[in-house]
Amino acid sequence: MEIPKAYDPAQAEQDHYERWEKSGFFRPEINEDPNAVKYSIVIPPPNVTGSLHMGHALQHTIMDVLIRWKRMQGFRTLWLPGTDHAGISVQRKVAEQLREEEGTTPLDVGREEFIRRAWAWKEQYGDTITEQMRREGASVDWSRHRFTMDESLSTAVRSVFVTLYNEGWIYKGLRIVNWCPKDKTVLSDLEVKEETKKDGKLYYLKYPVLSVPPAVAGGAVPSDEKSPPATAGGTDFLVVATTRPETMLGDTAVAVHPKDERYKHLIGKIVDLPLTGREIPIVGDDYVDPEFGTGAVKVTPAHDPNDYQIGLRHDLEQLLVMNDDGTMNAAAGADFDGLDRFKAREKVIERFEELGLLERVEDYEITLPVCERCKTVVEPILSDQWFVKMDEMRDMALELMRTEGVPHFSPQVPHEKVYTAWLENLKDWTISRQLWWGHQIPAWYDDDGNTYVAMTAEEAKEKAGGKELKQDQDVLDTWFSSGLWAFSTFGWTGKGNADAPSAMRAEPERKRADEGVRVPSDLDTFLPTDVLVTGRDIIFLWVSRMIMLTKKFVDKKAFEDVIVTGTVLGKDGKPMSKSRKNGVDPIEMFDKFGVDATRIYLASIATGADIKWNDLLIETYRNFANKIWNATRFCLMNSGKSDFDWSTANESERKKYHEERGPHTLADRWINSRLSKTAKALNKALENYQFHEAVSLIYHFFWDEFCDWYIELKKDEITAGNVLASAHIFWVLDIALRMLHPFMPYLTEELWLKLPGSSNDLHHSAYRDAEASIMLTEFPQGKSGEFVDDQAEAEMQLVIDTIKRVRNIRSEMNIKPSDRVEIHVAGSAETQGILAANEAQIKKLARADKLVLTDSLAVPKASAKAVLTGGAEIAVPLEGLIDFDKERERLQNQIAKLDTELQRLNGQLSNANFVERAPAEKVQELRERKNEIEHQTTTLNANVIALE
RNA sequence: GCCGUCUUAGCUCAGCGGUAGAGCACUCGCUUCACACGCGAUAGGUCAGAAGUUCAAAUCUUCUAGACGGCACCA
After folding, report:
1. Which nucleotides of B are covered by protein (CB under 7 A)?
2. Using one digit for the tens of pLDDT, what is the confidence trace for A540-574?
3. Which domains does chain A have, with CATH numbers?
4. CA A914, C1' B52: Å apart?
């Protein structure tokens, strides 16, 4: 058989995905076992504007490993893909397109046309990431692909909104919200990031206090009762400190602590607010910290959350002085109207300086709220928005955690604690967004300002008694629809819809449906999903909301487990980002190293740990892929020499063949045992989401055990055309490739299909009729110790140790590889028997032409020696080649190493406390180890003396 | 400010109560008929520092130092 010398990933990647997808292997319906247990995952929907980044690649790898593993175990698996409509991002992209291509704005084209363009944009660019997922080998069911603005998902959104509104969990009201002046929309708390600014300033402003008490207590003073401005001479000033001087234009009071001796006499007096001609009261409020700043606070109820609260307590005017684009408005005064907020700040300061009212300016480290997406400084502003009250749902989620420990986070620390703490302090959620792209809020208003919330415009009109209504112009936060993703993806649209028959249904179930039997819907079948795989950054934004909304609307857990992946950092150790230019494109990695190498590298990162990107590490796995390729290549190239008809050998025949035609060689029994233990450990690692452990197991089995030892031990038999030897190595290879398949799907499929006898006979029973593919074979379980053979492992260890000792001697003594040596071993009858049975292999791998087995050594003085665990002695006669000084040094080196260990053991064993209190078997173990070391040391010392 | 994570071989990281591990890099030797994306053999670490618990600590506790993350912030 002609096989290329190196693995070419691109070829395999092209060949298999399309076939898998077309054959329906990714769909749950491929499973023909009516009793199969389901295993489901829904993808965290990537943003339609996005393209694949390393975080996706990491998460998708983990999901695909789980799905492929479970599918091979015979579960009815579903991995549901989809995308998210990404309100602000798409809105911005389309607006950009309008500006660049037509020089127009969204307002120019109007809402309807804008939305049409947004859909067109989505159609054109929205599939980028789904195409990239095909490249990744993601075994998702494309027939169930969902988009958050699909008809049924949109219905679900309206349905949830209406229900929450009717039950009083959604309300509309004036609150201080986070406003992004660039995107011109409100943001939720979670979409605002705090940014520390070291070069901030704290401005101390002097507000003149009027001597005349106000006519009316509380509230702004009417301007007609204004006192004459105080002269500079005898005027009292109240000094306030602020980081945002421009907001003073909207001040409607100054607050001091009621018990502050410095100021309490001023409470009730009036301040002449500079630049505005307005007079505002001084109020006493506990909120004020007398220790901070000057102890007097300017109060701007329409532009600060704390001031807003003070304003409510003192019934202050809420004066809005800014427009939605961050410029000042008319209320700020003619001098400032239309001026950008930062320009206005400068101007305010200039004016205060001119008026001699700027006391001082201090450098001050401030933290600024910025828009997560565009980094624009967010403006707290009073605005009329829709909110969801979170208390009820919060309590449900906390209850779920308390009583059932759901969701179970992996890693549990620190996520469970952080999640719980966050929920406990959860505030109301701002859900309206001033955008056009998204789910328009299903609320309508009549001319009198009455609100009608309904599923459709018709319904709302009906409720309003036929009045003409106008729909709310805002859309809902994208995360509102994402919050329903766990169940809206399975066809839930609201009351009664969950039972609607699914178009995609397993054949046997569809038959039952035809017979009038009620069949379970996708919702019943696949929810709760088994696991959610996502990043830390959206635990609050998305995970928590899905848990709450799923519980509330379907009364189910959304999922059992949450795997929280770490962050893939750039080479500089910082999160990858466009601005830092430290990003690594997964597609480039696929091209350079292959998809499989990239996948298994990503899987090898410890769950939840951050990792600094390093190309060298993927290279490791590219080399691994090549190693597997070549190991298989060797088997295939040499099996042709046998006369065995491989094409007729299915799994059970092969098994039978082995059982009947045994006995196996020691190497066969050994590799079987290792294979079985590896499979068992691998399954356990996957059950515990220890992907890195799983990768390590399969890597070392394949390379260190299968390639380095097993193939080498069997090479002569196989190349000589030994039918049994070939049969067995294929049997091992088949199983090993299956274990590797979830991690490296393309390579394993490519190779497995080349194996003699790889047909659908080897499939899991649930997929018996499907076209042959490794992805439908049974995953090796290593169950109940099948093939475990500790005796064979111990014997093999002796053989390996013998070979390694001789190799060590050869290397240290500078024996040329081409020179053959003689090996003398003195040991027990058992040792001799084991070595005798493997003489050919020992001679080949240690490059010896003679193996002499004796009861006691009888070799020339010019021999290099070593001692094996268990006490057997090895000698390699090196007449004329040996360097006595070097041999002495070599032996003493070994003695020194043993001595270090012996000292420690002696220390422990002479400690009465240890002997008394440590477990007996531990003490026994150390005693045995001590005897072993003493024995070896004695032998080695004798060897040193013999050199004299 | 509150909560949390990390600090282990030159580099990137596993291990998380009982003899310090991997990959890469380094040193030495090999084009040996699957693979130089390879084979063989070495070398390299008082597991950040200190104290404590324990027969036993890289692993548990506390403190210190450094790196980082989340949350909340007083103008």
Report:
1. 3-5, 11-15, 18-19, 22-24, 28-30, 32-43, 54-56, 69-75
2. 889 999 999 999 999 999 999 999 999 888 888 88
3. 185-380 (3.90.740.10), 609-791 (1.10.730.10), 814-946 (1.10.287.380)
4. 20
